[in-house]
Amino acid sequence: MGADIRLAGADDVGALLDMGAAMREESALFKQRDFLPSKAAAVIAQLVAQGGALVADLDGKIVGMLGFVVTSHLWGADLVACDVGFYVAPAHRGGSIAPRLVRAYERAARARGAVEAGLAESSGLDSARTVRLIERMGYSVTSTGATKRL
């Protein structure tokens, strides 16, 4: 049977923290930044409490996550959803987990009044493949990002 896509609960915070640490270790960009487990756990707990954390649960093991916020956009009152973390464990990539997390994100964002959902690829983990996935799901590339180590 496939993974169950569901809202994360308070008991998932530890597994989400572990996934965040794994994403950091896999990303050359994120590895350059410090990692404070206590801060990360607090952010994850806040997302969970606000209903902004989705997980892919495969037989009791979290193998994917998508955290998000819904907020008004900069210049008006329309609500928009923005992802703050999207990761699928390497052994579970290339199947249905990532697209199912994205669809669940869209449903949750719509239910909270968002008129637009955004996804960004910022980890540098197979960027071209990630962009192809989100484009296949109807997203348009609307911006590019760059970083510079200071």
Report what the structure shows.
With 150 residues, the chain is α+β, with helices and mostly antiparallel strands. The protein has a single domain (4-136), classed as 3-Layer(aba) Sandwich (Aminopeptidase), CATH 3.40.630.30. It has helices at residues 13-26, 28-31, 37-49, 97-111, 127-136, and strands spanning 4-7, 53-58, 61-72, 79-88, 114-118. The chain has a 5-stranded mixed sheet with strand order 1-2-3-4-5, sandwiched between helices. α1 crosses α3. The protein is globular and about 40 Å long. The model has no long low-confidence stretch (mean pLDDT 89).
**Sheet with the most strands?**
5 strands, mixed
The total number of structural domains is 1
What form results from the Cα inertia axes?
Answer: globular
The level 1 CATH classification is: Alpha Beta
Full CATH superfamily name: Gcn5-related N-acetyltransferase (GNAT)
- Indicate the multimeric state: single chain
Largest beta sheet: strand ordering? 1-2-3-4-5
How big is the Rg?
15 Å
CATH level 3 topology: Aminopeptidase
Task: Please state the structural category.
Answer: alpha+beta
Mean pLDDT: 89
Intertermini distance: 47 Å
Helix tally equals 5
Helix content: 25-40%
Total count of strands? 5
Amount of beta strand: 15-25%
Q: Which spans have pLDDT < 50 for at least 5 consecutive residues?
A: none
Please write the string of helix (H) and strand (E) elements.
EHHHEEEHEH
